[in-house]
Design the sequence.
């Protein structure tokens, strides 16, 4: 979406290109970031990337006997890993916005 007159600001196009480059850098960083959530004293471990995609699930043999407990622990571990991924994403976005110099706005 183009806003009328913004393209006439000096350096605006360059600033937009820089923002797009930074977005790509952040996306790559989030894809490679790993965040772990645990539950049941570490009996369930879930690892997600910074985009909250589950990368791995590790289960201790002890939890396999109780299906309902296992399900609850998996949910808890996934939620914890997701919260940690949110923190990583927030840090990345803060870095993007903090270093961005937009003409007329800085």
Sequence:
């Amino acid at each position: 979406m183009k806003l009328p007159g913004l393209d006439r600001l000096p350096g605006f196009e360059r600033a937009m290109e820089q923002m797009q480059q930074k977005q790509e850098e952040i996306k790559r960083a989030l894809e490679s970031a790993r965040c772990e959530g645990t539950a049941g004293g570490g009996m369930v471990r879930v690892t997600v990337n910074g985009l909250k995609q589950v990368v791995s699930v590790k289960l201790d043999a002890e939890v396999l006997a109780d299906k309902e407990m296992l399900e609850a622990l998996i949910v808890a571990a996934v939620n914890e890993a997701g919260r940690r991924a949110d923190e990583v994403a927030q840090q990345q976005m803060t870095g993007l916005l903090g270093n961005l110099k937009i003409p007329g706005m800085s």
